[in-house]
């Protein structure tokens, strides 16, 4: 028995030591890591009138300099509340408050002041410090000021479709669109964390799927604020100049898939109450369109990659052709005679795109479109991404492949076509686009989210060859050669697509979707840029509406990032 006593003592001491360590860890979490949350919870229990106090991670944009710029964060304001049972003269109270708060709604104040059985009614929110101080100075009975925290978007409409929107569903206030929804479990900072979990994550990194357990944190995304602002300004210009029904744009790093800018118009302010919920949908990932002639570079790239055609291939352009009793025309119906493959891009010849598809064969053409990811989700970290409509290519009818060759009859998202075309810019690889680059957890752990490995979809040499052809389009044809940059090679193609009628019977005769895709410097592309304008007025072709905005974006990006010339 005596010989066992020291062992028992050591055993008991070990248990007490581990228990003390656990309690110390628990205390550390209660007081330090989640002290703010617990204090707020206690305050909410203490007073019903505390207001909307909550905690949530921030979303930061990444400036070129490495500085983080707040896109979504928490802000502090004040709630004006009344206890109707203590208001002896509601009209006099309102009159005094109105002197400090000229925007205070009189009718709502009167309605709420009549609810005598309710000790707490909010009559205004998000008051500034000075406004709150002014109300306090009045010392009105039955009137109180309560501090509140709320979701704030310092850039207002900046990157709104990316950041998303928060709203109530029943009594639950959470992310409903954009990154706010996609990363709800990380941003919400809800739940309980055990000391053991903390230690495991501290030494081995975040446990997958554990964000909802309370390890929430902040997001750092690839969006560059000045680039985002420049893109949005250009979209506003397009909307105003051409009275477009909608417009949008994407700027990617084609070598990593990082999204440097993404915007759509009309936009919304995620910090305000929304009256038109349709504006919250991100059309760049959640809506599909027939893209028109920006499909032609993919068609030609497939033909070149398979060896079905070459730069030296000629075909006879008759201005139109018949496929399965359907007539396909060039945009102007004119015949060019015997022309080289380059003219298919230079003059955007529908008949030439069909010729390349026929040389390639319908089966191989479909396989290449699959390899480019058309009709598939890109996998971007945003909610609600939509797959394209390309199932008609499985019908066995050649006419479906013929129209798809020049961008009609199939519909894809703007992001989908941007990612596919970016494979021409990076040596033939298809990359998964991404927004979030790292997550900063409340424990101090930082999780880096590196880009996924690209998938080779065409040969590197094929990408180089189609790039050379697209550079000729810019240097010699686009805007009569005036779009050419003296010191940089730019590869680009425009698209003008007919818009399907709402009844499904053919196409509108006077409504078009204009699109533009380009990348630069062409031989070692740093940027892929996609633009679109829905139903612009006063111009029939995308070359008229989008060439100048694209050129301004190209010059801005090359200068802002100080990219060395490539010629």
Account of the 3D structure:
With 567 residues, the chain is an alpha+beta fold. Among the domains are: 76-150, Penicillin-binding protein 2a (Domain 2); 226-268 and 285-560, DD-peptidase/beta-lactamase superfamily (Beta-lactamase, 3-Layer(aba) Sandwich), CATH 3.40.710.10. The chain is 36% helix and 22% strand. The chain is built from 20 helices and 20 strands. The chain has helices at 5-33, 35-46, 90-100, 106-113, 129-138, 160-163, 178-182, 184-187, 195-204, 225-242, 283-286, 296-306, 342-346, 350-360, 362-371, 398-404, 414-422, 460-477, 542-545, 547-560, and strands at 59-62, 68-82, 121-127, 143-152, 165-169, 172-177, 217-221, 246-252, 259-265, 314-317, 320-323, 326-329, 337-340, 429-430, 436-441, 446-448, 455-456, 491-500, 507-520, 527-534. Strands 1, 2, 3, 4, 7, 15 and 16 form a 7-stranded mixed beta sheet that branches. A hairpin with a 6-residue loop joins β8 and β9. Residues 37-51 and 191-214 have low confidence and may be disordered.
CATH architecture of the domain at 226-268 and 285-560: 3-Layer(aba) Sandwich
Strands, count: 20
What is the count of DSSP helices, taking H or I runs of 4+ residues? 20
Report the radius of gyration as a whole number of Å: 30 Å
CATH topology tier name of the domain at 226-268 and 285-560? Beta-lactamase
Return the structural class.
alpha+beta
The CATH C-level class name of the domain at 226-268 and 285-560? Alpha Beta
CATH homolog superfamily of the domain at 226-268 and 285-560? DD-peptidase/beta-lactamase superfamily
Helix content: 25-40%
- Overall, the morphology is globular
What summary fits the major beta sheet?
A: 7 strands, mixed
Report low-confidence residues grouped into runs of 5 or more: 37-51, 191-214
Q: Let me know the average pLDDT.
A: 89
């Amino acid at each position: 028995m005596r010989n066992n006593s020291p062992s028992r003592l050591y055993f008991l001491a070990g248990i007490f030591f581990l228990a003390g360590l656990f309690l110390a860890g628990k205390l550390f979490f209660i007081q330090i890591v989640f002290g703010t949350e617990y204090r707020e919870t206690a305050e909410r229990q203490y007073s019903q009138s505390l207001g909307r106090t909550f905690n949530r991670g921030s979303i930061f944009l990444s400036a070129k300099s490495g500085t983080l710029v707040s896109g979504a964060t928490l802000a502090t304001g004040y709630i004006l509340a009344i206890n109707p049972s203590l208001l002896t003269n509601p009209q006099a109270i309102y009159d005094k408050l109105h002197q400090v708060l000229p925007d205070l709604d009189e009718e709502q104040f009167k309605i709420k002041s009549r609810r005598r059985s309710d000790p707490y009614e909010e009559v205004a929110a998000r008051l500034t410090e000075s406004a709150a101080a002014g109300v306090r100075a009045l010392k009105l009975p039955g009137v109180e000021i309560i501090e509140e925290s709320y979701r704030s978007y310092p850039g207002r409409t900046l990157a709104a479709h990316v950041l998303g929107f928060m709203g109530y569903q029943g009594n639950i206030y959470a992310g409903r669109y954009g990154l706010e929804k996609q990363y709800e479990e990380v941003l919400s900072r809800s739940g309980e964390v055990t000391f053991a979990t903390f230690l495991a994550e501290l030494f081995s990194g975040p446990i997958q799927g554990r964000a909802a357990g309370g390890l929430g944190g902040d997001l750092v995304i690839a969006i560059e604020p000045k680039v985002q602002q420049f893109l949005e300004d250009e979209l506003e210009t397009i909307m105003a100049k051409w009275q477009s029904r909608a417009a949008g744009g994407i700027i990617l790093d084609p070598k990593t898939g990082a999204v440097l800018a993404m915007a759509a118009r009309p936009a919304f302010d995620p910090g305000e109450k929304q009256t038109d919920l349709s504006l919250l949908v991100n059309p760049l990932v959640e809506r599909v369109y027939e893209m028109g002639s920006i499909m032609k570079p993919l068609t030609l790239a497939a033909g070149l990659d398979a060896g079905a055609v070459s730069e030296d291939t000629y075909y006879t352009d008759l201005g139109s052709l018949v496929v399965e009793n359907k007539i396909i025309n060039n945009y102007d119906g004119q015949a060019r005679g015997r022309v080289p493959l380059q003219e298919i891009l230079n003059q955007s010849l529908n008949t030439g795109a069909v010729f390349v598809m026929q040389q390639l064969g319908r089966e191989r053409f479909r396989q290449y479109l699959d390899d480019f990811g058309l009709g598939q989700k890109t996998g971007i970290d945003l909610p609600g991404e939509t797959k394209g409509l390309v199932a008609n290519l499985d019908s066995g009818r050649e006419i479906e492949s013929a129209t798809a060759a020049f961008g009609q009859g199939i519909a894809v998202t703007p992001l989908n076509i941007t990612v596919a075309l970016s494979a021409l810019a990076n040596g033939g690889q298809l990359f998964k686009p991404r927004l979030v680059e790292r997550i900063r957890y409340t424990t101090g752990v930082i999780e880096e989210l590196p880009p996924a490995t690209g998938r080779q979809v065409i040969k590197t040499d094929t990408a180089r060859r189609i790039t050379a052809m697209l550079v000729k389009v810019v240097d010699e044809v686009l805007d009569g050669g005036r779009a050419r940059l003296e010191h940089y090679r730019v590869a680009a193609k425009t698209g003008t697509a007919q818009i399907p009628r709402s009844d499904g019977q053919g196409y509108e005769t006077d409504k078009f979707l204009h699109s533009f895709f380009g990348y630069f410097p062409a031989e070692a592309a740093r940027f892929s840029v996609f633009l679109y304008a829905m139903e612009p007025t006063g111009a029939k072709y995308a070359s008229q509406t989008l060439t100048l905005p694209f050129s301004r974006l190209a010059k801005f990006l090359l200068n802002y990032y100080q990219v060395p010339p490539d010629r």
